[in-house]
Amino acid sequence: MKKIIVFLSIMAFIYSCNSNKTDNASDSGFKAEISFDGSSSLAPVMASIGNKFMEEYITWDKVSSNLPSENISIYVSSAGSGAGVKSILDNTASFGMLARKIRDTEKSQMNNYKEFLVASDALTVSVNTKNPIVKIKDDLDSDTIRKIFSGEYKYWSDVDPSLPQKEIVVIIRDLSGGAYEVFQESIMGETQISPNAIQSPSMGALGTKIVENENAIGYASYGVYNQNKDNLFAFKVDGVEPTKENILNGQYKIQRPLMFIKNSELSEAENAFVNYVFSDIGKQIVEENGYIPVE
Q1: Strand-pair category, 255-262 with 114-128
Q2: 218 - beta bridge partners?
Q3: Which DSSP string do the residues of 253-295 spell out, in sequence order?
């Protein structure tokens, strides 16, 4: 799991930006900087693609002869899907990143709404591979998951009497994350998650907390799970395994899109980068991060 911590720390150092950077432009009005804000699940993907794009082209004139010879700057910051929407409504970023569907109330505030679906994702109900439950169960039904995350089941022995009476540590994303909303809709319904659940500032941090605690359970993204299969065990949910096939055919119920949005026409520079995101190189980077690229 250390590789995730280091990776995200490096990306945060290189790509974190002040929200006002999107306003910076040359005298000609050209904006050499493209900024993304929002989903912590999509942020590492966009940061990797941005880094590859900058390494390959360096200046915008190498992308297109119509563009000036200014250095390319791609900035990525992550504060959750809610922040991604807000960054577009407040015009503080070029693109907002979401790890959930956009709400009608949000979309209605945008007159020139555009969305770009990058990948399919799912939330795996995962535990530490050292948790004794993995030896006796590989499947949890929705009702059991609800009882665990609501706090009705407080000890692992409540899930199965053969398990030790050790307190269940529930790990969730913070309330601004798209994962929280997706899990609430897919599993919890009208039942609220326990106020004792530990909130994580990013999906990477959520995965780290599960790896560090043998008694923890959380909804790790499909990407985080794929990057850490040696340390995380993902349950089937209602008998359905979180595989690529089951996510794409819709049988696995806790799934979500990874996308970015905009509320204006794309500049030539933005359009060039978006095309790069959906190129074979971009799709390869999506896969390397454990997610399912959109074909």
Answers
A1: antiparallel
A2: 126, 171
A3: SSEEEEEEEESSPPPHHHHHHHHHHTSHHHHHHHHHTT-EE--
How far is residue 271 CA from its own chain's centroid? 23
Could you tell me the end-to-end alpha-carbon distance of the chain, in angstroms, rounded to an integer? 29
Distance CA 15, CA 28 (A): 25
H-helix or E-strand containing 35?
strand 33-38
Distances (CA, A) of 24 to 18, 19, 30: 11, 10, 9
What residue has token string 């503080």? 92
Predicted local distance difference test score (pLDDT) of residue 26: 52
User: Whole-angstrom Cα distance, residue 253 to residue 186?
Assistant: 7
> Residue 228 has what DSSP assignment?
T
> What tokens does 261 get?
């949005």
The tens digit of pLDDT for each residue in 126-182 reads 999 999 999 999 999 999 999 999 999 999 999 999 999 999 999 999 887 889 999
